[in-house]
Amino acid sequence: MPPKSEARLSFNITLLAVSKKEEHKEIDSQQEEEDEEEEEEQVEVKEKETEEEQTEVEDVLEEEEDKDGEISIENMVTEAARTTQVPTTVPADDNLSYIMSRLSGIESAIHRLNVQFYGLDVKVSQMYQSLSKMRNKLSEAEDSITTVSEMNLRNQRQIGQIEGCMKGKRYIRKCYLIFQHFEDYDTAQKLCYSRGGNLAMPIDQQEFAAVAQYVHDAFYPFNWPVWIGINDRRSDGLYLFENGHRVSYFNWYKDHLVTQPNGGVLENCVSISSDDGKWWDNDCSRRMYYVCEY
């Protein structure tokens, strides 16, 4: 009897083991089926998403083509891909580090600019100092040139006075010198002044007689008009010497045909004739010989 019960027990255990194996197989097969179903569902979801994305891309493409017709399908696909990308968020620490690095770079650039500006400021200051020195030297040179020029003018006037008295005619304290080249009245006066004198200004009859004789002797036997230092430019009929003094002696030419002065406002400067010493009023721009006094 006991051996039979043991045999039944082992048989039952074997049956239970087999049944458990079969149950495990069924569970595994069910699990595999479920996994396959999930995979199929995922594939379907992905296909739907892809179809939806394609549909959205096609809609966008159609809209863009309706607007300008210039954007290509590749650009739209790229744009769709960009829109579908999940934006990556940068941690706050990285943003702060980036900002601090940029600020540090800006600060170093500002420092370099400050250094450069300081160098430029130093150079400008040096240039300004050099320019001030050059201006001072130039001012000194101008003063020296002015002094030399004044000395030269004084020397020329002194030389002219000496030449006038050596080559010309002396009368009491004056000397007269004739210049035999043609000049208008103003130029003749300037040339006389540069030589230390003025156009001849005989103040009385005796002095004028000496001047007239000197002119006569210089041009004899010819008759030439010669400028002397008398004019009525300030007021017609008011005759003044070049030094501003009023003329008190006159020796105008007069005959039965001509009476001087007769030029009015057109003839304001006085010349004398070399043959008889008579006075004539003439246009001041007329060119003729002249006599200077020193």
TrEMBL record:
Gene3D superfamilies linked: Mannose-Binding Protein A, subunit A
Localization: Secreted
Gene Ontology CC terms, in alphabetical order: extracellular space
GO molecular function, one term: growth factor activity
KW Transcription (keyword) present: no
Pfam families linked: Lectin_C
Region of interest: Disordered: 21-67
GO biological process: ossification
Residue ranges of every copy of the C-type lectin domain listed in the record: 171-293
UniProt keyword list: Disulfide bond, Lectin, Secreted, Signal
Bias-annotated ranges (Acidic residues): 29-42, 50-67
Lineage top rank: taxon: Eukaryota
Protein name (database record): C-type lectin domain-containing protein
